[in-house]
Amino acid sequence: MTSAAARTGRVNEDFTGAVPTAAVLIDGAGIPGAESICRHGVAWYAIRLGGALLSHLSLAPDRSLPALLGEAIQQVTDDHRDTCDVANPISPSAAVAVLRQSDGLVEHLVLGDAVLVLDRTDSAPVVVSDPREVIISRSYESALEATVEGSDEYQRILRDLRANRNRPGGFWLAKDDPRAADEAITGSCPISELTGAVLLSNGASRFVDRFRLGDWPGVLAILASSGPGEIIRGVRQAEARQAVPADDATITYCTDVGGA
Hints:
Elements: E1 2-4, E2 14-19, E3 22-29, H1 42-59, H2 65-80, E4 93-102, E5 105-111, E6 115-120, E7 126-129, H3 132-145, H4 152-162, E8 185-190, E9 194-200, H5 202-209, H6 216-226, H7 228-242, E10 249-255
């Protein structure tokens, strides 16, 4: 596991952790102004959600991944419902990736813009992602670019974009409504078909999907030879070259999955 904040002195809003049969990655998402309605912040939300989910994965191995994620969302929401405006559109939220071994299978779940890659024994890797937020956000790009940032019209467009969150036909994140977990991308495959797996926050997956520094088989090769820190170093160098604002970047690399 490797996790790096976007820059020195900034709180890392990603979380990752593992128990013997499962791994979890949480990519916290914040919107400017959120501190006015939630005193805890995005990093707190990501850590609490990840910790709750790992606990549920350990204690209830027979329940489905969406059910466990929904329970974790409910638990964290209840933890700050009395002090914070949890239903406000700008309250903390997160993308989630989960991997679990169970009864000869490897199960996975992705909600939001985290990425999970399954390294298969005899064929190309399977990339599991949830593109809904990216697709919807792109439909607003031209309007935002044509509007003065910070203006009333700009803020109106942003509100319209955020109104697509956690609603049918929109995109889904972990936030205050446990029903969002039922909208996650899920699947499973026999353990024998895999040699490993990788969970990435979107700050790390930009190595492939934004900066085109390599493909997913290439990422797996770098991970096997040099570890996740090398991927994050490549991302940071590309961000600096292209003057792209850095993002928190987190990778959990699971090896020897088939032999576990």
